[in-house]
Backbone:
């Protein structure tokens, strides 16, 4: 079923007019909106609808903004109502200023032309467009003639239309500048009027010299007015200059001159004939100015001393018949750079000025090693900000000079100051030794201009530093316990050849001390826990001393180091002189030592097992040295000590540098053998001595272990010494059949002259010798191989110290020469003082032997050697302490795969 057509209604004429107007407005609004949007912009739009809780979106519509060119020139005008009027004479030039604006959305080039209305009375002799860069409505030097203008979107530019009139001519010219887009559309409704005058015409010129001037300088201003018309003014002409508009510049009194007419001055409220104290304006009054007649007014202006650098524009105006007319000239106020440096508060060293006595400071005496400071002020008397370098000359060798903002803060150089700003600073000198009198020349230099200013600091005499040596003693000395009273003695003498003034002695007490008294009495500050004596003046050669009694607080923990120093200050000792520092270690706990021996009864040749236990009951760590003095008839069994071997010296066993943590106990076990010479009761004394990190000497502890010897009488016995000399291929210190090589024919000697040679198996024997201590020497000439380390080896290893009781064995393993054995593969590990050499050697039964040779030039605590096995797992060897050489071997099953060993140890 078709719908019936909707009837059309007739539109009244007024309705049609409104619709047309609406469409025009809408089009204009849309054009303006799109013109304001940059070309190339994409505008996206998408509609959405909510139906039964669900949102549906329409398709996306995108609009791309195309380039739009639009230009406007203002002010607008018509021939009937011109925007502006410029008066000139026939043959002269008139100037019409305009503003051109790019109202489009893209950069454009606009072509310029002129449209003359047909109602004009004359045709221009010439027309020119100029870009008015400073928008002052005049064609200035350097402003170029143009035929087109390039403008970005929304940008503007000032234009001047220069119209040259023909001669003769009269009447008016109606002319409009036209700016056109590349497509042709543009703006042309900008008519202005150029009127050719008849009668008087005023013209003004102005000249300012110089055109650049410093603050404080003078400027000559020359104003002239001329009647360029063809008739006299027949009325008053005023040529005026508004000086009140020129900030930073003032009229120079009594400087105005005129070629004709009368000079008047503006006093701020009215024009007067007499020159006032303050001149805010000046003008030349002419009763009449005939054709071609001119008048000149000259005067001077002075730039203020603090005038800021800038360009000053000055405008002169002529008013009267044929006017108004004006002229503009400008001048530049240059920045002034001036620097002053002098004593504090007087940088200009007034009244004498630079280099005068007011620019000099002096300290008659200084003491070597003390820092003395002169106070100064640096002033930037410039009209702009500047920075200044500071330098010094005239310091002798051994004297240091430094710049400080205050006594502790170095001055940052160069010093940056704003215009008119000043800063106080210190120049400090310190002499390392006595030197003759000297004068320091302090110089400030502008980094901008190089302008400089000086001031001078003199030091009269530099005295030796040892003229006052404070000393301090404490009683009792050394380590004390908590609760102990201490007495400090403070003393010094003024050995300087000058009196010291305002002498003050300061003593800062340690926080672990309680103040009791002082003599002479001091000012005690309980909050700062300090003492102070104010001595006033101290004449040369005068001694001073004091005592201070304090007590170590009861709750002072162990291992506290109480230190104390006092200082002497005076006018001549600004840095002060410190005394020596006393040190009092605090330790209250007792080191505990226990010693046991097993068995309690023994026979000749028996082994005695000793156990030492040292305990630290303190809350602080300590370092302990244990010294064991065996009785006569006891011989230490080398290698038996656990956890570490002792140092043997003068028959004593010494364990050094044992660190005991708070509450820790260390146990040392070792063996000794009963040898001939032992008494019936063996008394073994051990002593433990401790020290702390603070140096406290911890009270020693003493422990005794006794053993009874069963035999009543000890008779001399006989002994036999046997051994073997061999080349130790695997360096394990033991003779291995099939691997090591016996050395036949080697000669061995005893101190009694007895000597033997080794047999084919490398064996030797000294039979039926006295029991006791013997030295066996291997003759190097018969055994030219380096000995390997042995427990009884002495010096280079060719001598052994042997305790001979019964049958005693002492072998001499020697380093095997290269090529003696077949190494499947070898490797070496170097790590600091540690070297590890690893070799794999084949054995006769098809197995392989791994030989690890260790060498260290330093004592290595807690050394661990890890040697990975080819099939997995590892061999691990732990040495509590290691130094020197050691050989470790083990048998390897399977293939002789060489792995890389690892080592690690702990540094103390």
Residues:
């Amino acid at each position: 079923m078709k719908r019936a057509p909707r009837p059309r209604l007739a539109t009244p004429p007024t309705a049609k007019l409104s619709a047309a107007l609406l469409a025009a407005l809408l089009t204009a609004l849309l054009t303006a909106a799109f013109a304001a949007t940059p070309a190339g912009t994409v505008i996206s739009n998408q509609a959405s609808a909510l139906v039964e809780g669900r949102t549906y979106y329409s398709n996306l519509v995108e609009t791309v903004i195309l380039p739009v060119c639009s230009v406007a020139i203002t002010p607008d005008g018509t021939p009937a109502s011109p925007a502006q009027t410029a008066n000139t004479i026939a043959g002269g030039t008139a100037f019409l200023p305009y503003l051109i604006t790019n109202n489009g959305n893209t950069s454009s080039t606009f072509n310029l032309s002129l449209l003359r209305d047909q109602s004009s009375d004359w045709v221009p002799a010439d027309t020119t467009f100029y870009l008015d860069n400073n928008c002052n409505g005049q064609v200035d030097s350097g402003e170029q003639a143009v035929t087109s203008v390039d403008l970005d979107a929304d940008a503007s530019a000032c234009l001047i239309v220069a119209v040259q009139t023909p001669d003769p001519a009269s009447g008016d010219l109606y002319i409009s500048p036209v700016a056109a887009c590349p497509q042709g559309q543009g703006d042309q409704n900008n008519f202005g009027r150029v009127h050719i005058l008849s009668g008087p015409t005023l013209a003004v010129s102005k000249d300012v010299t110089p055109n650049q001037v410093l603050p404080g300088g003078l400027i000559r201003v020359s104003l002239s007015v001329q009647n360029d018309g063809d008739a006299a003014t027949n009325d008053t002409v005023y040529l005026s200059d508004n000086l009140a508009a020129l900030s930073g510049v003032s009229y120079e009194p009594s400087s105005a001159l005129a070629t004709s007419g009368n000079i008047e001055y503006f006093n701020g409220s009215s024009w007067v004939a007499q020159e006032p104290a303050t001149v805010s304006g000046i003008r030349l009054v002419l009763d009449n100015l005939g054709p071609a007649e001119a008048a000149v007014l000259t005067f001077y202006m002075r730039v203020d001393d603090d005038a800021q650098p800038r360009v000053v524009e000055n405008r002169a105006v002529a008013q009267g018949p044929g006017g108004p007319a004006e002229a503009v000239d400008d001048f530049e106020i240059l920045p002034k750079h001036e620097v002053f440096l002098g004593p504090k508060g007087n940088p200009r060293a007034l009244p004498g000025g630079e280099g005068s006595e007011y620019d000099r400071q002096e300290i008659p005496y200084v003491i070597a090693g003390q820092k003395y400071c002169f106070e100064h002020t640096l002033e930037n008397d410039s009209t702009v900000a500047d920075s200044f370098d500071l330098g010094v000359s005239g310091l002798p060798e051994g004297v240091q000079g430094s710049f400080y903002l205050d006594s502790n803060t170095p001055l940052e150089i160069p010093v940056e100051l704003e215009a008119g700003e000043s800063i106080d600073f210190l120049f400090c000198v310190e002499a390392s030794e006595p030197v003759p009198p000297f004068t320091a020349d302090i110089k400030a230099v502008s980094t901008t201009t190089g302008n400089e200013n000086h001031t001078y600091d003199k030091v009269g005499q530099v005295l030796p530093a040892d003229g006052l040596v404070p000393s301090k003693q404490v009683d009792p000395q050394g380590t004390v316990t908590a609760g102990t009273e201490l007495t400090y003695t403070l003393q010094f003498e003024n050995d300087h050849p000058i009196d010291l003034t305002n002498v003050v002695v300061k003593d800062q007490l340690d926080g672990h001390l309680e103040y009791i008294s002082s003599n002479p009495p001091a000012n005690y500050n309980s909050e700062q826990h300090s003492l102070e004596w104010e001595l006033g003046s101290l004449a040369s050669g005068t001694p001073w001393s004091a005592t201070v009694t304090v007590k170590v607080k009861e709750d002072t923990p162990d291992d506290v180091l109480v230190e104390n120093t006092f200082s002497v200050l005076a006018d001549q000792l600004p840095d002060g002189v410190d005394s020596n520092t006393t040190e009092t270690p605090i330790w209250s706990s007792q080191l505990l030592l226990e010693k046991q021996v097993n068995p309690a009864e023994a026979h000749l040749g028996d082994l005695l097992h000793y156990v030492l236990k040292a305990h630290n009951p303190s809350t602080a760590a300590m370092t302990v040295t244990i010294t064991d003095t065996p009785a006569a008839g006891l011989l230490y069994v080398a290698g038996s000590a656990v956890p570490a071997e002792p140092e043997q010296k003068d028959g004593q066993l010494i364990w050094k540098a044992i660190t005991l943590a708070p509450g820790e106990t260390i146990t040392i076990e070792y063996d000794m053998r009963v040898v001939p010479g032992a008494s019936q009761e063996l008394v073994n004394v051990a002593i433990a001595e401790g020290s702390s990190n603070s140096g406290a000497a911890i009270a020693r502890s003493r422990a005794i272990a006794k053993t009874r010897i069963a035999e009543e009488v000890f008779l001399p016995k006989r002994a036999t010494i046997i051994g073997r000399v061999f080349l130790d291929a695997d360096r394990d210190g033991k003779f291995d059949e099939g691997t090591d090589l016996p050395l036949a024919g080697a000669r061995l000697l005893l101190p009694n002259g007895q000597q033997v040679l080794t047999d084919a198996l490398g064996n030797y024997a000294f039979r039926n010798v006295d029991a006791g201590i013997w030295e066996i020497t291997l003759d190097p000439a018969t055994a030219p191989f380096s000995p390997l380390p042995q427990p009884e080896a002495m010096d280079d290893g060719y001598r052994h110290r042997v305790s001979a009781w019964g049958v005693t064995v002492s072998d001499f393993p020697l380093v095997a020469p290269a090529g003696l054995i077949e190494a499947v593969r070898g490797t070496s590990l170097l790590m600091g003082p540690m070297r590890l050499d690893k070799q794999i050697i084949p054995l006769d039964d098809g197995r392989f032997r791994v030989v690890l040779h260790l060498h260290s030039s330093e004592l290595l605590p807690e050394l661990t050697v890890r040697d990975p096995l080819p099939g997995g797992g590892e061999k691990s060897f732990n040495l509590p302490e290691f130094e020197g050489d050691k050989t470790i071997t083990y048998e390897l099953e399977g293939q002789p795969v060489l792995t890389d060993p690892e080592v690690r140890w702990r540094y103390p």
The two ends are 110 Å apart (CA to CA). The mean pLDDT is 86. Residues 13-36 form the longest helix (24 residues). The chain is about 5% helix and 55% strand.
